[in-house]
Amino acid sequence: MSALPPAAAGSAAHTGGYVADPRIRWQEWLPWVLAVAAFFGAPDYLSLGARILIFILFALSLDLILGYAGIITLGHSAFFGVGAYVAGILGAKLGVTDPLVQLAAAAAAAGVLGVVTGAIILRTTGLTLLMLTLAITLVFLEIANKATSITGGADGLAGVVVAPVLGLFRFDLYGKTAYLYSLAVLFVGWWLVRRLIYSPFGASLTGIRENAVRMHAVGAPVYARMVAVYAISATLAGIAGALLTQTHQFVGLNVLGLEPSGELLIMLILGGVGRIYGAFVGPFVYLIAQDYLAKQFPEYWYFGIGLILVLVVLFARGGILGIVDAALARLRRPSA
Q1: On the CB side of 299, how many CA atoms lie within 13 Å of its CA?
Q2: Terminus-to-terminus CA distance in the chain, angstroms?
Q3: Which of 52, 198, 212, 244 is least enclosed, having the fewest CB within 10 Å?
C-alpha cells in the first residue's frame, strides 16, 4: 500500500488536528484508492501489504496519544502484545476461532489494560511516565515468557486457528484475505480516529497537550480525558496485535518489549507526528525500506534505516509530510 498525504494534512497539523469543517476531502480517499489498486497490481506482495496495513493501525493508535494528547510512551507494545496473545490463546487453546470474536476480545482486553494502567501512570509526567510505560511492557513480556503452558514462552504460540471471515473468506497462502481483512479493519479504525480528532474532544486533547494547566483552569476534566484517550489508543493497538496473530496464525514474544515500541516511534517520526496521515506514510516507508534493505544487506540493513531517520530528523523536522508541505507551499507561492 502506498499513501500520499492530502493537502489538508498540513492545515490540520497546524491546528492540532481540529478544524471547523470535519468533512472528508477528496484527497483523503487517495490512500484507499491506492490500497485497492495495490491489491490488484501487486499480488505477490499482499502478505507484506497486510503487515503494512496492520502497522498503520498500530501507528494510528500511538499517534492519537503522542501526537494529539502529548502522552509520551515507550510501552505501547504492551497493548499490541496483549491483543496478539488474547487472539492467539482463543484460537489455539480455547477453540474460539471466529476472527471477529477474537478481535473483539483482544480489543476489550487491551482497552481494560489501558484503563487500569492509564489510571495509574497518567498521574505522573516526564521521565517517570516514560519509565512506567516501559516497565509495564517488560512485566508483560516476562509473564508471556514464563507462562509457557499458555503462551508457548520463547517458542511462541503456534497452531492458532482462525475461521473464514464471515464464514466465507478463508485465509490463504497468498495473503488475499489477510490484506482485504486488514484493510477493512484499518478503514474502520481510521474513520473512528478521524472522527475523534476532528471533534470537540479532539480539540480538548490538543489543548491538554499545549497547556494542561490552562485546561485545568477553564474546568476541563484533564485527567479523565487523558485516561479515556489512552484507553481508546490501547484498544486500537490491541486490535492491531490481534490482526497480526490472525494473519500469521502465530504469536511470539517479539510482539512485546522495547523493540516494537521503538520501531513504531521511528515510523511516526518518519511520517510526521501529530498528523493522522503521518501514521500512513511512516509504516509504509519503514517496512518497504526494511524489506528491501534486509534482502540486499542482510547484516547491515539497520544502518540504512538509521541513515534514513537521521536525514529526516536533520532536514525534515515534520517528517516526510513536512517535506511534502514545504514543496506544496513553494508551488503555491507566487513567483517574484
Answers
A1: 0
A2: 39
A3: 212
CA torsion sign for 153, 159, 162, 163 is: negative
Q: Which helix (H) or strand (E) holds 31?
A: helix 30-41
Nearest in space to 267 (alpha carbons), one of 251, 246, 290, 247: 290
CA dihedral 174, 178, 180, 185 (to 10 degrees): -170
Q: Which amino acid is at 35?
A: A
pLDDT in tens, the chain (336 residues): 433 333 334 434 434 444 445 777 877 888 899 999 999 988 888 999 999 999 999 999 999 999 888 898 888 999 999 999 999 999 998 988 999 999 999 999 999 999 999 999 999 888 899 899 999 999 999 999 998 989 888 888 888 889 888 888 888 878 888 999 999 999 999 999 999 988 888 888 888 888 888 888 888 888 999 999 999 999 999 999 999 999 998 998 989 988 888 889 888 888 888 888 888 988 998 899 888 888 888 777 778 888 888 888 777 777 888 777 777 777 777 654
| DSSP state letters, 53-118 | HHHHHHHHHHHIIIIIS----S-THHHHHHHHHHHHHHHHTS----HHHHHHHHHHHHHHHHHHHH
Give exposure, 105-132, as e/b (b: 16+ Cβ within 10 Å): bbbebbbebbbebbeebbeeeeeebbeb
- Nearest Cα neighbor of 65 from 268, 299, 294 is 268
User: 44: helix, coil or strand?
Assistant: helix
Gap between the Cα atoms of 66 and 60, Å rounded: 10
Contact in structure between 39 and 179 (CB atoms under 8 Å)? yes
List the one residue out of 33, 298, 203 whose CA is nearest residue 290. Answer: 298
Are 238 and 244 in contact by the 8 Å Cβ rule? The answer is no
